[in-house]
Each structure stands twice: as structure tokens, then as C-alpha cells.
Write a sequence for this structure.
């Protein structure tokens, strides 16, 4: 979700009711600490700061630990350590999934250090809230402690159950409270379904430890959500990435679909005549307007290109308009191209989402 899960995108998603939590773009810890000119845009938390999870990345423990201390002051739900990104340009730097393949003690040092920082931050927040009289964040009325989570995969192509569970055992031993698992290996692409059964195995393994296990991968609608939940019924939640870019309303779609499915006797099926209408043109304009407000001009092109690479799949002539938008020279041209498209294809302006 790099170049996508920023404030402008969150604002569009919130138009449809939003989701429970928003993970930020990967925040490169050394860059954040160095105070680069664009880093302030990575730590914008609107429009719902209380739903933010700060996602940190880097190749060495110390900068990430220091960055965790910095973002912990900004509130939100907590900090997530990205140990699952398999993009070659991330992995080759020693970040992302590279953490699963390094000597175990390096990953342990990182997790332990960030956990210590978050515990200290929670105590400080509690003391501030109670005039310095608090000694921990557990008393009634104290600010909620910051959560530590990790996103990971199964490992490299030669992973074994022993190596995978040894890694996740270390995470839990060091205080990780949530694991989001994309159950594919480093090089596995999206053609085959992820191995959701590993999500269930993790949930069973840590059920007594109070660790939440979240399923990530290949969920894009109600039907796929139902299949995923059948494979991992004990998962604490579902994380959605690319499908949310194509359909910022996907969370509302799935929630409504699951509610409808649970209300229908099994013998009647799920073909319910219910749903809601989405104005595709207004949604696209809302994204562009928010992009101009909450991202620097230097970021506009990469952000609109990434968004419309997925969003245009909702259109009847997807390839045609996608090609034109991705090649637009400036954001004003993007507005003009969208206006021209919907004048020529007015039937695409609104879409009914069936659930």
C-alpha cells in the first residue's frame, strides 16, 4: 500500500463508513529521524487519528526503535513493524521480509526495543492524564496502552513449519500483541490462494496468550471474506489492501454482505436484493481534492497513478481511461480526463453495489 494509504485515501474510504483501523504507509525510520522535507506527510493521522496504526520499516533496530518513540507521542492505536513486505527494492535493503530471514536475535532486539518504548510511552501518557499520580496505564480512565503488532509472511521459499512458528513464538515471547499474516512465501505471487490455514494455526497456538491474529491476502468481496473466515474462523480480523484501492467502499460492502448472509436461512441462498449506490465520478473527484490538500505537489502524480491503476477497474472502458490517467502530465489534466470520460460514458457514473 505504499503511495496509497495516506490521509487523502483514508478520507475517501471514510465517505463509505471506513474500517476499524488504518495502517499508514510504510514509514522509513531513518528518513523520519532525519527530518526530511516530506516526512511530515507520512505522519498525518486524519481524518480519524484514533484509528491510526503507525507502520515502520527499516533495516536496523536502532532507527526503528527511535522512530517508534517519536510516533508513540502522536497517539493512535499503536506501532506495526513491517516484517512481511516482499517487494524486491524493500527486501534487498534488509527491510520487510528480510527481518524473518536475519539471525533471530536481530529481530528479537528490534521487537524488544520497540515494546519497551511503547510501554514507557503508555506510562507517560497515563501520568499526564492523571496529573503525575499514575504509575502505569492500567487504572480506570487511563489512556489505552499502545499496541505492538507485526506483519509477516510464511518466510522464504524453503520455509518449514518449524522455522515459521519459531519466528512467531519469538514475537509473542517479546510482547507482540497482534500478528497480521499474509500466508504466502517471499516469492509467491497472487495467482494461487494464500494458505489461510496458517492463520488458523497461529490463532489456535496463541489463543491463551491473548494475541490477535489477522488474516491478510486475497479478500476483495463478501464471497472471498466468507471463504477466508471458513478457513480461519478464529482470526481476529481481515486486512484488505489492493481491493480497498479499487473499491474504497469494500469494507461497507463486506459488512453488509456478512450481515445479510447471517440473516438468511441456509436453504434460501444469499441472493439478496439489497445494496447501495456509489457515484464513481464523485469519489474520484473527492480523492483528487483530498490529494491536493494533504499531499505535496511532488507526490501528486505517483499517488494518482497508483490509485487509478486499481480504481479504473470499475469502469466499462478500464484500459482506455487508465492509460490516459496514468500518462496525464498534471493533476488538472486528470480532472479534465475524468470529466470527458463520464460525459462520454454517463452510465459509468453510478454503480450499484449488491450485497
Amino acid at each position: 500500500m505504499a503511495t496509497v494509504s495516506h490521509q487523502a485515501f483514508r478520507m475517501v474510504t471514510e465517505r463509505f463508513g471506513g474500517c476499524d483501523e488504518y495502517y499508514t504507509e510504510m514509514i522509513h525510520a531513518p528518513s523520519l529521524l532525519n527530518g526530511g522535507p516530506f516526512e511530515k506527510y507520512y505522519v498525518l493521522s486524519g481524518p480519524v487519528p484514533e484509528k491510526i496504526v503507525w507502520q515502520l520499516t527499516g533495516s536496523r533496530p536502532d532507527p526503528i526503535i527511535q522512530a517508534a518513540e517519536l510516533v508513540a507521542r502522536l497517539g493512535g492505536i499503536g506501532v506495526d513493524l513491517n516484517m512481511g513486505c516482499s517487494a524486491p527494492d524493500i527486501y534487498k535493503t534488509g527491510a520487510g521480509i528480510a527481518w524473518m530471514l536475519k539471525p533471530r536475535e536481530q529481530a528479537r532486539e528490534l521487537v524488544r526495543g520497540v515494546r519497551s518504548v511503547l510501554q514507557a510511552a503508555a506510562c507517560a501518557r497515563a501520568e499526564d492524564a492523571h496529573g503525575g499520580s499514575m504509575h502505569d496505564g492500567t487504572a480506570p480512565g487511563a489512556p489505552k496502552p499502545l499496541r505492538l503488532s507485526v506483519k509477516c509472511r510464511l518466510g522464504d521459499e524453503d520455509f518449514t513449519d518449524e522455522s515459521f512458528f519459531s519466528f512467531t513464538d519469538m514475537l509473542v515471547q517479546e510482547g507482540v500483541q497482534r500478528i497480521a499474516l499474509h500466508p504466502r512465501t517471499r516469492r509467491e505471487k497472487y495467482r494461487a490462494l494464500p494458505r489461510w490455514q496458517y492463520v488458523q494455526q497461529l490463532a489456535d497456538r496463541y489463543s491463551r496468550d491473548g494475541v490477535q491474529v489477522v488474516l491478510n491476502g486475497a479478500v476483495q468481496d463478501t464471497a472471498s471474506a466468507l471463504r477466508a473466515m471458513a478457513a480461519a474462523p478464529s482470526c481476529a480480523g481481515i486486512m484488505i489492501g489492493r481491493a480497498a484501492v479499487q473499491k474504497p467502499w469494500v469494507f461497507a460492502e463486506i459488512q453488509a454482505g456478512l450481515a445479510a448472509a447471517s440473516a438468511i436461512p441456509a436453504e434460501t441462498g444469499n441472493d439478496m436484493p439489497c445494496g447501495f449506490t456509489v457515484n464513481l465520478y464523485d469519489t474520484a473527484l473527492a480523492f483528487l481534492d483530498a490529494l491536493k490538500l494533504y499531499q505535496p505537489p511532488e507526490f501528486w502524480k505517483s499517488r494518482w497513478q497508483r490509485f487509478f491503476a486499481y480504481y479504473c477497474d470499475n469502469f466499462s472502458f478500464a484500459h482506455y481511461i487508465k492509460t490516459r490517467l496514468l500518462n496525464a502530465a498534471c493533476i488538472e489534466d486528470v480532472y479534465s480526463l475524468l470529466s470527458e470520460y463520464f460525459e462520454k460514458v454517463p452510465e459509468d457514473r453510478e454503480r450499484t453495489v449488491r450485497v
